[in-house]
Amino acid sequence: MAKKVTFDRRPLIAGNWKMNLNHLEAISLTQKVAISLTEEQLGLVEVAVIPPFTDLRSVQTLVDGDKLLIVYGAQDLSPYDSGAYTGDISGAMLAKLGCTYVVIGHSERREYHNEDDALVNAKVKAAFKHGLTPILCVGEGLPVREESQHVAHCTTQLDAALAKIPADQVKDIVIAYEPVWAIGTGKVATPDDAQEVCGAIRARLAEKYSPEIANGIRVLYGGSVKAKNVAAIMAKPDVDGALVGGASIDADEFATIARFPEHATAAS
Ligand SMILES: O=C(CO)COP(=O)(O)O
Questions:
Q1: 7-18 pLDDT tens trace
Q2: What's the rounded mean pLDDT across residues 87-110?
């Protein structure tokens, strides 16, 4: 029998599909992932899919109709509540669609849409206002890492994103450390690299808020996470899950990632 695995915080494995899969493909993938995982596995590890906006209604109908034990979220939101913002989607709309999570400050939004720290902060506020849990992304590019400034870079992004966010909101946030050089490149950070920054993020949260609050917040790693490397990264004390890109649009691979506690017990 498998050994019982326990965690300080319930791990979160979230699949960021990015700009992939139409609503029919979304139904098929979500169904496949959900039926590949047992109730026990989904009790231990929280599993989320983060599809494009156009898929959310279909995913909601499926998850509600079949009472699936997985949750879902969006990849971005507007800092505004409603109005003349062509092309934008509000937190209220996402909440109405049953979203649990919303990714904020992903490096692809920072890079391709010029999102700065002030906008990221406004989006974090909008998410909390509408009852959504932000998955706040921070991470350094290669030049910053080469100058060994990665910890300072990430904690500075964290400080800016959390400006004027009170403790009773921040306690529910999820932070994702995603080194830009590891995203979609196959160059995964080592488990020690992930631990260094995830640990520094938790320490910074403890300083800004309190050790109790910091200990309750989940800090994920993202960047070329696959079934073959997830268990080693998850074995680190300050890594509480993974934000998975490319591997999340392959149902078998993603479900195998979500079963990482069993890889660990199998290896021990
Ligand atoms: O950006 C990511 C998740 O948000 C990571 O993407 P990859 O897993 O494809 O490297």
A1: 889 999 999 999
A2: 98
13 close to ligand 1 (CB < 6 Angstrom): no
13, 18, 49, 103, best to mutate for ligand 1 pocket (most atoms within 8 Å of CB): 18
Q: What pLDDT is recorded for position 3?
A: 46
Domain ranges of the chain: 73-245
**Distance separating alpha carbons of residues 174 and 162, to the nearest angstrom:** 12
Question: Is the ipTM, as predicted for this complex, more than 0.90?
Answer: yes
Q: Is pLDDT of 223 > 80?
A: yes
Beta strands in the chain (DSSP E): 12-16, 46-50, 71-74, 101-104, 133-138, 174-177, 218-222, 241-244
Give distance in angstroms: CA of 191 to centre of ligand 1: 16
Phi, psi of 48 (to 5 degrees): -125, 140
Q: Is 139 in the pocket of ligand 1 (CB under 6 A)?
A: no
Q: Which residues are catalytic?
A: 106, 178
Give the atom of ligand 1 at the shortest distance from the alpha carbon of 176: 4
CATH architecture of the domain with residue range 73-245 = Alpha-Beta Barrel (3.20)
Side-chain half-sphere exposure of 137, counting CA atoms within 13 A: 29
